[in-house]
Amino acid sequence: MMSDATVQTDVIIVGAGPTGLSLAVQLMHYNIDFVIFDQKKGVTELSKALVVHARTLEIYDQVGLAEKAVAGGEQVRTVAVMHDGKVRARLDFSNFGAGLSPFPFMLVYEQSKNERLLYEHLQRNGKAVHWQTELETLTQDTDKVRAVVRTSSGETQTLEARYLVGCDGAGSPTRKLLDLPFEGSTHPRLFYVADVQMEFPREENTAYPVLGEDSFVLMAPMQGENRWRLIGNLPEYEDRVDQEVSFEAVEPKIKELVQQPLDIKTVLWFSSYKVHTRQAETFSVGRCFLAGDAAHVHTPAGGQGMNTGIQDAYNLAWKLAFVLQDKAQDSLLETYDEERVANAKRLLQTTDQFFDVAASDRWHFRFFRENILPSLVGLVSQFDAAKKLLFPMISQIGLDHRDSSLSQHQHDHKFEVKAGDRMPYFSVNGKNVYDQLRSPKFHLIMFSDGQQDYAHLKPNLEAEYGGCVDFHIIPLYPKVVEIFGSREPFKVLLRPDNYIALISADGALDDLKGYFNKVVGRTLSSALSS
């Protein structure tokens, strides 16, 4: 990258963790030029974040990476809740989300593997990450962003782009240079995380949350012989949260909680930390954006953090692409803040509540953990309705944009599925419906009872919208009728991120023109001819 001349690109990506690498992969999918750099020497060797959820795998699947992730991970099929040395309840996670996603499970696929998966995909496609490169300054005006970076050799380089995205973690230099507050709180307790090789009489593909009176440890299996992730809290350090802790001090605590034979052979990684709940008040300033931990950090409950950052990148990428390719006006980018700030607020509230249940020392939470939670977990396992409620929350497939200005609700009152919802999963001739929706564009789907000839719409669609909208006809299968609640033909317009833009029983295309003119900011035909 080093040269005397200013480097010109479309998007500058600051940070090459899971969020930044995901953004780069998505921009490459849209054929958008970018420069990505990170102060690290390379992808992390530490496992760090642990779980990949169904929605992230759906995003990976769109660019052909999900199969590799699943093959390289460990599916959690059972959660066995322990207390006083005994398993008090079991939650069956095998096919937990059957019929809701092509990935109906939780996958242990640690951050280091995610980063390598994404980085190697970029490399295979001729894209580079500039390692050991730091952001020094950034300035912006109405037309561009200019960033000055410093390499490990001490030399500086100027980058110039239409947009810049800070994916540079909780201590984000981008956020600080934009002078954005990072308001929130710090949990008044110390926590630890460790990756170990450990002998324990486990059941296959089973994670063990172990609950104590004022503490807990989660033991999650990782890929590899006798590899485990241990996560827990240290209430005895409440008044000494800044004190350094060794694993030797933690190991007896773990054994005391588990009360079953376990033998920790090797400690591969150990860290103690404080839990923060913080969020930037806005995720954009002018031509600069924040994503992932740079925009929001929260408790580790539910393994939501890395997945949320990847979804930030997914949401922003198509909007940047459409604006950069003159298919939409700049105002489309305002919906990134609109949608993702609202999601982050909900997520912070939810994870805080989950974390209180697991870690709080208040008497009512202790009572709930010891006397109610095990029975409740066992009950959830027995009812499909409970699973269908819980899985969308955990897997993030239930997150919606119903309140977004990109969601048009004029005609969706007749349907069970609403504008702003993720496109529901079902099979078409034995194939995943998402297999038809991988192209980086809007998707128009006509659900037909066979009585109408929708094929004649395709030439009109191509003439009006060029390559920006593709066209599909899907029969009104019984599963479609069950999901959408309509026996009559209807159409669905999907955004490039497979959220529903509009749904209507009107088979004409007039409302598409109105949607693009109002929401995207112009008719696509005028954009294509300009």
Notes on the structure:
There is one protein chain. It contains 14 helices and 27 strands. It starts with 6 loop residues before the first strand and ends with a helix. An 8-stranded mixed sheet has the order 7-6-15-16-17-14-18-21, sandwiched between helices. Strands 9-3-2-13-20-19 form a 6-stranded mixed sheet. The chain is 32% helix and 28% strand. It is α/β, with parallel strands linked by helices and 530 residues long. The radius of gyration is 24 Å and the shape is globular.
List keywords for this structure.
disordered C terminus, six-stranded mixed sheet, 530 residues, 28% strand, eight-stranded mixed sheet, alpha/beta, 14 helices, single chain
Give helix % range.
25-40%
Number of helices: 14
Question: Which band does the percent of strand residues land in?
Answer: 25-35%
Largest sheet: 8 strands, mixed
Distance between the termini: 33 Å
Record the strand order, biggest sheet.
7-6-15-16-17-14-18-21
Question: How many β strands by DSSP?
Answer: 27
**Global shape:** globular
The average pLDDT value, as a whole number, equals 88
- Contiguous low-pLDDT stretches (5 residues minimum) are 525-530
Radius of gyration: 24 Å
Structural class: alpha/beta
